[in-house]
Design brief:
This protein has 149 residues and is α+β, with helices and mostly antiparallel strands. The chain has one domain: Metal Binding Protein, Guanine Nucleotide Exchange Factor, Chain A. It is 19% helix and 29% strand. The N terminus is likely disordered.
Length: 149
């Protein structure tokens, strides 16, 4: 008989290996992404507020990583966070992103990265004790009406 702890460890292992890592050389990423996307997704730049194509986007569908195509967010979780960037309450699958502490500014913040290709997507902020806001660069996303896991 499997106990709860063993089952949890087993399920966690499955979740961590449910997709393939996408890796390229820095030169290949530059070629694949183009200059602007490369700067944001591989060099952790931030696009200018209110300049991205998805900050006020309201169509129903899904948002994918622009670098590798992993589905990240649903329009059901998107809302107007008054930030100038697309805001989401949660990822479509928690394991499709990972969070890393960001020490690039004098205050603590948390970077959101794609689990599959490690590309920088944006940042996550705590809006309240029980609510997170994923603030994502539009250029790091591709929108599709259909869901492709």
């Amino acid at each position: 008989m499997i106990n709860i702890k063993t089952a949890f460890i087993f399920m966690s292992a499955i979740l961590l290996w449910d997709h393939i890592k996408v890796t390229h050389s820095d030169e290949d990423w530059r070629s694949i992404l183009g200059t602007e996307r490369y700067c944001v997704m591989r060099r952790k730049a931030t696009e200018k507020a209110y300049s991205g194509q998805y900050f006020d986007h309201i169509e129903v569908g899904y948002y994918y990583c622009a670098a590798c195509g992993l589905v990240l967010f649903s329009s059901d979780a998107k809302y107007d966070g008054n930030t100038g960037w697309p805001c989401f309450r949660e990822p479509i699958v928690q394991n499709h992103i990972w969070i890393k502490e960001d020490h690039s500014l004098p205050f603590r913040r948390y970077e959101v990265l794609c689990r599959s290709c490690d590309s920088h997507l944006g940042h996550v902020f705590r809006e309240s004790p029980s609510r997170l806001r994923y603030t994502i660069n539009s250029i790091a996303l591709e929108f599709k009406h259909d869901y492709t896991p």
